Structures are given as C-alpha cells and as structure tokens.
Amino acid sequence: MCRLLAYVGSPVLVADIVLWPARSIIKQSYDAKERKEDGSMHGHLSLGSLNGDGFGIGWYSDSIVAKATDPTPCVFTSVTPAWNNENLGRLSCKIVSPLVFAHVRAAMPGMPVSEQNCHPFQWGRYLFMHNGMVGGFMRIRRALLATLSDAAYDTVQSFHSDSAICFSIFLHHLPSLSVVQTPQALLQAMEATINTVLASQRAAGVTEVSLLNFVVSDGSTMLATRFIAGSEDEAPASLYYAEGSAFQRSPHAAASDGTAAGASDAYDGRGFDARQEPCSPTVNAATARHTSITGEGEYTLMYGAVGTRVVLVASEPITSSAGDWVAVPRNTVLIVSHNKGGCLNLLSSPLGACCAKARREEVARCLEAATGAAEVASRSWSLQRPPRGEAEPAQEGKPGGELPSGFGRADSTPGSLWLDGKAKVVAGEEQRLSGHSGPVLCLALCGERLFSSSTDLTIKVWDMAGGQCLATLTGHNKPVQSLWVAREHLYSTAGRYLRVWNIAEPSFPCVRVLQLPRNGGALGALAVDANNHIYVAGQDSVVRGFRPESCAADTGGVNGCLKVATGFECWRLGSLEFVRVLRGHRGSILTLFAFNEARLLLSGGRDNLIRCWDMETLVCRRTLSGHKNDIMSIAGLAPAAGPTASVAAAGGDGSPLGRSSSMERSAALFFVSASMDGTVRLWTGQSWACLQIFTAAAVHAPMPFLSAAVSARYLAAGSPDGQVRIWGTAEELLAAPAGLLPCATGHGAHSAAADQPVSSDASLRDDCWRGAKFLASLLESLGAEIKLSRPIEDKHPIVLGRLGRNPDRPTICFYGHYDVQPAMEREWLTHPWEVAAVNGYLYGRGTSDNKGPILGFVYAVKEMQEAVGGELAFNVAFVFEGEEENGSKGFKEAVQTNLHWFEGTQLIVISNTLWVGEQVPCLTYGMRGMISASIEVKGPQRDLHSGNEGGVFNEPLNDLTKVLASLVDGSNRICIPGFLDRVRPNTLAPALARLDNSAEFSLSGYRDALGVPQLVRAASTSELLRARWCEPALSVVDVRLGSDDDNGGEIDPFYRFGPTRFSVIPHAVVGNVSVRFVPDQDAEELITALRQHVDTVFAGLGSSNTVTVRVKSVGDWWEADPESRLFKMAERAVAREWGRAPLFVREGGTMPVASALEKMLGAPALLVPLGQASDACHLANERISRTNLVRGKNVIRNLLEEIAAV
C-alpha cells in the first residue's frame, strides 16, 4: 500500500516530518517491502513487492508576503526510492512550512511509474494525495472523465492514475477554481467526489473494493477521508490522526520518566510562542547525504496549555506513543481548519450512506461556528480607573456596590478600581503557590485542600490554610487534562489513562487505573455522578461510562460527538441516551460547569462569552460578556450545598430533563471564570452580573489564567508560569446571599405563587421562563414532544410541541402566546397576578389574552385522548410564543427553523380575538393590517429656554403638530393621497347578513362602551362597522419629546416630566402613528404615500428643521372565506355547543401571526374567539367568563372531532 503523511500547524522543518523520525513514512515503506496482495492478478503480479514506485512532498510557503502574492504550493516528486534520494535530503533540510504533504507510492500492477503519477498532485492552490485504489478503475475511467467540466478536464495530470482523475473530480465540484473556498464548500466537494465514483461503479456493475483515503488542502483547510466501498467485511486502508501543541524531537535525556511529553507552550510573560522551534541536528545541503540515517531519532507530540496547534494525519503512526494517535473511523472525513491565536479546529464527520441529512446539517453548522471564532477579536484586559473627580457610588447589596471588607482584598491592591461602573477590581493576589514546572491546567478545591495539575505530569496537593504542598502525585506520563473530586476520591485523566486516588488517606495512594483502548487518543473530559459512575470523553469523540466496581465500560460508549465542540451534545446519565445538541458559541467550547440543584449549565468558549443553559428546557437563558479572550475555566459554588457543591456531577439524579424547577435558586449561586485575558471574574446567578474582577500582581504583561476553582473561603486560579494564585473570599458573602443581594422574586406578598410573564419588562424574564416551562410540562403530560426555541438571544423562548407524527392523518396547528401586558393600572379591583373568581368570571392579567384560550385548547385535546384511550385521529402541533405583546421578534425565525415540527399542517387554529358583544358566539373572518411608524422633527442641537429663545426660530413641536394635523380631517378621514386606493368592496357583507338581525351590537351601546360623547361616521351600524373593520384608519398614538437617537431610543422619565418642562423647547420631537390597512392594500405602497405626504407638507412650512419618517413594524391583513369547508366546520362546532349559529365578524385590530403562519405553513387559519367584548384585554380588570372558557373548550373539541371525521 501507499503511505502518506500530512502536517498542519506551526511552521516546521520538513526533515522533522519526513526524513528524521524513526517511524517516518519513508522508514515504514522501506521496512514493509510489500503492497496489498491482489488475488485477482495472475502470477507474480498478485504478490506484494517493494514500495519503490516513487515519492513526493508538497508544501506551502511560510512567508506571509508569498502567500498573499502566490498561494500555490510547491511539489517535488521522483520515481527513485525516497530513502535513497539525495535531493529529498537537501530540500527537506532547508524547507520550513506550516503545511506539508508527503507520499510514498506503491503503484498498481500495470500502472506506469513516472513522476507524472507521483503524489501529491497540485493544481492552483490545491494539494491532493490518495492512499488506496478505485475498484474497477479501467472500466469506469471514461465515465468518470465524462463527468468533468472543460475546466476540470484540463486539470487531469495523468489519465492512467485513478488518484489524478479523482483530484480533477474534486476540482470539478468546487464552486470556483479561482476563489478561496470555505471549509463547508471543500467538504461538499469531497462528498460529491466520492459519490461520483460510487455512482459510476454502480452504473458499470463494479463490485471490486474501493479504498478512498484522500487528503486535500488549499493551504488553510485540510480534509482527510478514510473510506471503503464494495465490501462490508473488509477493513478500510488505515488512517490515523494526532493533535498537540508541537511535534518535536524527544530530548536525549528523557527516556524513562516520560518528561518528554511535557509542555511545549513556553510562557515568557509576553505570551505563548506559537512557532515551533526546530530541535533537529544542524545540517546543510553539503551534508544532506545519508541524513535519513544519521539524523534519525525519536519524535514526540508535545501537549501544551492552550489548544491544538499541530495536527498530523498518517497512514500509520509515526511516533512510538500509541496514545498519541486516534484511528479515523470507517467512512469518515476529518476537517482541519484554522482558528484564532494560531490554534486549529479538528472536526470529524461521517461519509456515504451513513451520513444522514441531519448529520450533514450538524457538521455544516459546526463548521460555520468554528469559522466564526476566527473573527472574534482577542486581547488582554486592562484596568480602568474612574475619571478624576468621579466618586464611587456606594450601593450596598448591588453589583458594583461596596462588598464586605475582606472579600478578595490583597495587600498589593492599589485600591478599588472600576470596570464599566459595575464590577470592583482586585489587582494582586493574596498568596501564590509555586511548585509546578509547567502551566497549571486544572484545579479542584475540597475544603482546605487544593489539587492542581500541570503539563509537568504531576498533581500537587496543597494545604490552603498553611499554603504548603502536602504531596506530589505521580504516575501519569502525559499532562493531566482534568481533575474531579467526589467524596473521598480524586479522579484524574492524562493520555489514555484515568487514575483514582484515595484522598482520605495521608499518602494519597492511587487505588485504580482505567485505560482506554488503543487508537482512542487522549482523554479530555471527566465527570463523576452521585453514584460514583465515571464518564469520560476523549479525542475519538466517544463518551464512555464506567461503573465504580468495574474497570470495564458500562455502556460500551456513545459515538457521534463532533470533534470541534462549537455546540455540545447532551446525554442522560446512566443510559447515555442522546438528548439534544446545544449550540450558540462561535468556535470551540473550552469549559463546562453544572449547577445540579438549579438545573443550570455554564459554558465558556473561544468567542469570549459565557452561556447559561437551562437544563430543564435545554435552552440558553443568558449570555455573559466581559472577557476579552478565551474562557479557559468555569467553577462555581452553591452556598446552600456546602463547599463540595462545585464537584457534584451534572444531573446527579440521572435526568438532565428533571421536572423539579429550581430557577429561584440561581439567586444563591456564585461562579468564577478564568480567561486568557488575564482576569478571573466572580459572577452572581441572582442578576447574572459580574461582582468582582481579579488580576495577578503587577507583571510586565497581563498574566493569563488557565484554570480556576472556588470554595466558600478561597478562590484559586492557575497560570501558565506554573503558579497558583489565591484570593480569600468572605464566607458570609456565599453563606447568606439573600442578605447581601436583593431577592429577584420580591414583587409583593402575592408574587411568591404567581408568575408575571410581561415580555416587555426585562426584570421579569424569569417569570416568562416559568410560563414557558409550565406549558412545556403541560404538553409533555399529554405525551407530546417538546422543544424550546429562541433564535434571538435576549427574547423569550417559543414553546413547540408535537403530538403524533402519522403522515396519513391531518395535522392541526394551534397558536397562542403566554406573555402578557403589564398590570400597573390603579383601577384593578382584584390582584392582577392571582386568578380571582367573582360572579362567574375569572379575573387576572392574561385570563382572556391569552392564557385561558391556550388552556382551553390543551384540555380539549386531553379530553379527546381520554375519550379514545389511545392515539388521536389527527396530529397536533403546538406553538406558543413569549413575545407577542412585545413585537413577536424571533417568532418567524423559530417557525422557519423548525418547519419539520409542523409537517402535514392542514389547519391553523388561533383563539386570540373577542366576540362583538356579550351573548352570541362569533367567528372572526377578517382583520386589518397595521403599520407602526414615527414622524420625527429635529431642530437645534439641544433643548432651549422658551423665555430666552422662544419665537426666534422654527420650533420642532410646532412643526410636528402641523404635520400630524394634516394626516386626517375632522371626520377622521385620511387626507394622504392614494391612501384609500385598492380598498376591496363588500368585505362587510358576511357580517351584516347576521348582525342586522342581532341585538349584540348597537351604536348607542358602542358609544357608551367607549365613553365618548359622539361618534363620527355613524349614520348607521353598517357605516360604523365599515369604518371600524373594512376601511383604512390612521391614529396619532403618542407624541414624545426628544429623538429616537437620544439615549439609544430610551425615554428619560425626568426629561419628559421634570419640573422645568414648561419652560423648555425640545430640540426634537417624535409623533408615533398607527396605520390600519385592509384587503387588498399593499403596505409598501402606503408607506411610500405617507413619506411623500409628510415631505410635501413639511416643505410647505418653509421650516429650517428636518423631518424623518421611520417604519417600526408592519403586520399584514388577514382574511378567511366564510364559505370554505373548514370555516363551515367551525360554524357547526360553535352551533353544536351554543345551540345557535355564530355571528361572522371582522376586527379592526391586527394579528400579524395569522397571515405569517398561513404563508409559512401553507395552510389556512381559523380565528375562534372565546372571550366577550367586555373582557378588558390589556386593561385593568381583565377577565374571562368561566362559562365561555369551558364552552369554548368544548367548541375546540367539536372542531377537532369534525376534522377527525373527514
């Protein structure tokens, strides 16, 4: 077989990769002296023979200037044996490159041996090499060539080589040969290349085995495949990969103690040196002869503190340490791409038939996120003192206020400093612990003991009270990558080994050693649950569980992790059942920490952000910013749980989707984050604010932090200089957080048992979350699948539910919203956040809009389930949003991203409108659209005094008043030209046919309900309803002083209502208008007409001020056909329950979600109101009749039964 090697990473001397390693591919090829035997060939051709059919190396320039002007690589090939080629020796001792390909060829019998056929092949910026063969190549060669475009056909370098033609097929599938492609495009081209070969083989009836180990690069991204087709029994050609911080010659002195595997990331105070220093013998071209022998030596992968900087892919391992290498799984592709700071991303993805669409989408999203991390700026954090003369506000108990004396104070602290006016800064540690000779990778605190591990292969045990090292634990021969303390044991992982230490004994003996299988790579993650079950994950992207009494894997492992953790996958403990992928970070996730009781998970990554995940709903609740560089470690403490809380296993009850909600407990949580920006931050879960920032004592450059641990008394952080820095923490701060910080749930005596899901109030986010989680639990009680989606970071989640997925049955989608309006009106007669039953009505905010109707629909489904005792005759899709009262931001994105949850939808049911009166049920068949716009007039640069400057310039408020007055006349008819065009006639006819004979609506009753002395355009009921429902309307709804550009658009209450307001001329004013439009009007045409009218009127004023029209939101009109089959079903459902036919009504209001869902799901919507006209939605004393709620539920059930019977 051929042998190949690819290197990506810090620039390296080619001889260190190709020539001198004792297990280089040249040595392997020479020692093997055979190819794969082929029994189909005759005579001596079937036997293996010496691999002397040529070789080649390819490399890219290390010069930044050269890369910019000429990105093409260089290739050297020869048909002479590589182990005896003097030119190879000369070149490899002079070339330094960050990306190297090397290949030793074993030609197929009958294939010409020439430099033209030697690998790697090069075209443009691409290098390509192949280990294996295309089965039946001579039979499908013409078919393969026929698939090529003219441009790709011209790239074929040898028509006798299956590898050369496969390279041209790859180039053919690229979007362009002249433009740099994304990793996603390269992956798609590789998948298409393999599919092209397989399709040609199927068409020709080829059954021979194909071994398609391809490696390709454009100088930045590299792909390597291990693929076999044609046989399920035969093994694919071997392929391995290894990753580390450097690839270097082993020091001569390191032979027995394993110290050669120490740190390669030397920290000199200025930063990590990403460039690898050659440690090879000094040679030059004159002495290059025989250097493959004289320069031979052992090489090793080095493991440093900060990420992967070197990746090697080889047909066989080229180092003696088996633990360095991971076997690439069968039919898998590796994608190596660059990240920020000289680090590399490594991702693995399945190929071929096993690569389902969902998996391909997952890989694409990971590649996109990994690529995005390279765009995140990183820098060191710098101290910022308050401006001279600015006093530090002392706000006791609030973030940024005064903390208890003694908390984190160091003698070297130059006073309290400020960051963004919020977090206190402590510069200088109280204590240092020195002893490690390499970067401190991991820390674990347990009581008065601190455990630290380093790249020096040791674990040190420290007495925190005395600051003394109690013991140094040895035994690992690789850097210790993780520590975990659980009761009387310390768990540690390094390389392929997991060690368990008894920390209850003074000698800290190692009591157990677990070893991973060969070719599985190094362990990188560790967790231990409450039952002492051990969970580990390593380079091979497999999660394994171990029973405490056994050294064997409990579950056999879970495969399928993506190597680059741009998102992370969740499994249930015990069974390791896959649950869901959580994503949101850009770039790799570097650290995770779980608060078990609060069901919270914290993640930190290369995008400088911390994300806080709710593990009940598996949705991100918060994103915390502030760090300026990679977040290397997160550790936490829940004070009520004691000092060992920080080492409890995630989901200790075995269920990451547990039902007990402990969101309030986040108020008592504290955690710390350590970053490469040189800071450790202390955060509170009460307000998700940063309370304090810790930095190292003054050095000539900021000291990065790699690890952190926190207890009730100490905060520890590990540094690249091998030292552990310690700060004290006040016990009272963590023991009694409720006394130090204000409780988030204090909204009065009644709030303890009630939620206030007001979407427009940021302080009530947790209440909205509880509302979403309540609905999720309610749907789960029906047996529905659930998902919480939140496309926009700071918006509340959309609850998705699905009950049944039978494609032969209709699917009904029900929409509702769980958020509500505020309830600040003084006119409330009952507590707005508690349901009060008074005279047959249920009072409380949200009873009618929209919690009551949601419960009516859910319980209608529940009753039908109980009635049939099994599956329903239809599927149900639920979608409940939490931002309907706040603009519905993110709703469309959530639906479009999750369209598979709505597959087969034939009807959308919405119950978010009202009856026209009090006694007769209604069905809504039309609603107006709405345009929310602002008209802003700007004048002087600042406010002016009306006594000093009044009357000498054009005042903005006077101008705005004249413009607003021009919009409508005295009868509220719109005066904007073209605004009444394209109004569909006769849209009121279906309503009038039934309302004319009903006492439900009268002009006098309507006038009294509004509380106005007189109605305009009210000569008859039909005229008023036409104006209210079927014609455009324009209303001025607000006039605000100031500009939308002032203070980020926020209104300053004192500015608006201060005591000097009557003597101030505002420099800018904004008038907000609400435009309602009807079928068949177009919103864009109306917006254009509004702008033209405003500009025309304003120009006529001759004012020196400026005017601007801004559109804030647009919602389309909606209409249903009362004669349609589904509408008739709804009519029968209402009549069956109420004993009378419903009224048909339109509404003057707007519900954009109706038309939006119709367009997205391709199904009609029905609006079935449950509430009466007097329900006072959005107003004080909101209510819903108990009768209407119960009978409305029955109407929904009748409708569902009608649909099921079709």
Automatic annotation (TrEMBL):
PANTHER family, sorted: BETA-ALA-HIS DIPEPTIDASE (PTHR43270), DI- AND TRIPEPTIDASE DUG2-RELATED (PTHR43270:SF8)
Gene Ontology terms, MF aspect: metal ion binding; peptidase activity
The UniProt record lists the keyword Metal-binding: yes
Listed name of the protein: Glutamine amidotransferase type-2 domain-containing protein
Species name: Elliptochloris bilobata
Signal peptide annotation: none
SUPFAM superfamilies registered for this protein in UniProt: N-terminal nucleophile aminohydrolases (Ntn hydrolases) (SSF56235), WD40 repeat-like (SSF50978), Zn-dependent exopeptidases (SSF53187)
Superkingdom of origin: Eukaryota
